[in-house]
Amino acid sequence: MPLREHVGDLLGVGVSAGLTLTFYYLYRSGREVVHYLKDAAEVDIEPKLIDVVQSSGGAVEGCVRGAVKACGTPLHSLGRPEICGVYWRHSIKEHLTSQVMGFWLNDSQPVSTSTNNVPFMLMRKGVGVQVMEPDLLESVDLSVVSEKFESANNSFLDHLWGWMKGVRTTGTQHTEEMLLEGTSVLGVGRVVLGGEGLCLHPSDTLPYIITTRTKKSLMEDLQAPLPYFRALGVVTALGGAYCVFRMCGRLLAAWRRRQERRREEKLLEEARERARGGGGLGGGADGGGDLPESLMCVVCCGLRDVLLLPCRHMCVCGSCASRLPDPRACPVCRALVESVQPVFYS
Fold it and tell me: What is the pTM of this model?
């Protein structure tokens, strides 16, 4: 069987395997993160924390909660200078109206995002845990401190060109967000006792997060997509299994056809040997005698000595029947030939 008949199934198996492994990795890694976060200790920031970390070998993986305080000069908001914080993000978003199937719908797309941060710590009861490498934080809950929307000053030609394109700009929105000083947050990571005191470092098993949520709500958010990853992995695996099953079915059908061909060739050869030994019409035909047109093979004009099933036409000889191209079709009615049976003249 030509390889091109299996190209679609092979591509399906490859894509299914890739997607299944991806969803399995997402599910397994997410489950491990949730498991480690569930077992992570909630460490209180207090004077005894130094002794707890020392007794644990100089490092403790867990969650700490405290108030945000800058280690040096804090950042000030551009829109509201009286507000200060330790993590700043400014995003610009363009608002559009797009024409979809004759309807104008509101849409938006990000233009640019800028961030800045300063070293800060989590304070409680006079003890601070410094947050190291804030640039590596996977998630930071920020508060919106200022928003400004600038309407687009479009001319008549701009409106006309936007109507022709199906997209018109309505304005630009500037949003400024900050992690404010004094905010009570939960820090997730690895608490290490070093030369600079207690520090919160990224962990190998836990996500590095600063959030205003509780540990329980954070676990629920991390666990929410896991059932979907598992379901999608099962669906893609079943799709790959279907492609493999279909390929195996085709290979089995081809093997059965080859076995049937061998059986037919064996029967035809036995019929020819019997005709040669018995003489009569078959022997005369092999010997070059004249044949009536009704008994001539429609291909080579030899003796018609086989019956094509299921159409039951007797129109070719055994040699021509064995050379019919796949899928075999009757030369008279073009019906698919499932088997070939020899016939005998007496």
Answer: 0.66
